[in-house]
Structure formats: C-alpha cells, structure tokens
Amino acid sequence: LESRLLTQPWAAVCFGESAFIAKACFGDTGYVLLISDLSSVWYESADMEAVGQRSKELNKRLTAPESSVLHRLASLLSPVLAGQPDTTTSFSCQHTAAGLSLCLRSELSGLPFYWDFHCRPAPMATVFRHLVRPLIRMSLALQYQVQELTSLLLQKDAEIEDYRESGATLSRDRLRTEPFQEEMFLQNFMAE
After folding, report:
1. CA distance 102 to 41
2. Do 148 and 121 contact (CB within 8 A), yes or no?
3. Is 121 helix (H, G, I), strand (E, B) or coil?
4. pTM score, two decimals?
C-alpha cells in the first residue's frame, strides 16, 4: 500500500469546516491515509486486524467482514478525493493531542456506519517522500519548461525580425507583438 500511495494524486478536500489536501490507498489488506493542512501532515495505516477491531468498537450492531468494511470505506472516501462528495456521508475532524481524528458518518445495509481515522503526525521520511520531493521535482520541471519557452520566444522574435528585414509585412496589423523581454517578464512575474 505504501508504494501504491506514492502513485495517488493529492486532492483538495473539505472535512467539516476545515480545508485539507489528502490522498489514500485502499487494498485487500488495509488502507493508508495521508492528510495535510499545509502546516502539518498526518498519517494513518491500518491493517485488517485494526479495521476489524475498530469496526466492532464503532459499529456494534453491524457485523460485516473486514473486507466489506474496507470496500465501504474506499467507496465513501474515493469520491470525496475525486471531488464528488456524497451528500449522504458526513465528515468532521478534530485536532487531538495525538494528531487528527477524521470522523465519517454514513450507512451500510440500512444501518448507521461510523468510522474514525486516527491520524498521527507523519514521519519526516513520509512527508519528504510524498510532499516535499514531488514539489521540488515539479518546481524544477516548471523552471526547465520556462527556460525552454523563453528560448523559443527569443528564437521566434529573431525569426520575425529576419522576416521584417527581408521586407515582409503583416497582413493584419492587430497581430503585431512587441519583442519578448525576458528581464521585464521575470520582474512582472515576481511582482504578481
């Protein structure tokens, strides 16, 4: 599940009144949840035994195998992470001394279904692997892309200038552009 979680995208979500980014991975043997408010990162990993125990504690009238509970959790959380929350499911969260508690309320087979994700502060290695490293890589990729686009714009300006010097004129004057000025562009970009 840990390696599959790396391939999951982050999603902007609201749980109760709080905004987060989150990602989760559900499998046949458990689940992993990573959630952040961009100042802290919390994490929970639960195996089949933990899922069964928590289900018995929270849903005393419900007897369902752990695999059904995992499937239900995935079917309730996945739409939220995809930006399509179910109106019959409610989420709330509260900060605790141990971390973050995310409470889910829904139904399963006509009975109330409750689940609490007990998220603790994520280890630094997890934060680095799932948040910091991908952000740095994306930043570097975007910087490279800006350099490539800047180079292409300067080449296009040189090509247009060559056409002008050869006597070519625009058939539509509204298409005329000013030559690209890299320094001015960077200053405006940083100011914005």
Report:
1. 13
2. no
3. strand
4. 0.75
Q: Which fold has domain 1-122?
A: Dna Repair Protein Xrcc4; Chain: A, domain 1 (2.170.210)
Give the C-alpha distances (Å, rounded to integers) separating 11 from 47, 85, 100, 188: 23, 12, 18, 30
Nearest residue to 77 via CA among 89, 65, 68: 89
Q: Which residue has the tokens 């109760």?
A: 16
Q: What is the pLDDT of residues 114-164, one digit of tens each?
A: 999 999 999 999 999 999 999 999 999 999 999 999 999 999 999 998 988
pLDDT of residue 32: 95
Query: ∠ at Cα 50 (47, 55), nearest 5°?
Result: 125
Residues of the chain with CATH 2.170.210.10: 1-122
- Retrieve residue 155's tokens: 């080449």
CB 15 within 8 A of CB 95: no
Count, residues in the chain: 192
| CB-based contact 108:64 (threshold 8 Å) | yes
CA-nearest of 137, 107, 134, 140 to 36 is 134
| Amino acid type, 150 | T
CB 103 within 8 A of CB 95: no
3-state helix, strand, coil in the chain (%, to 5): 45, 30, 25
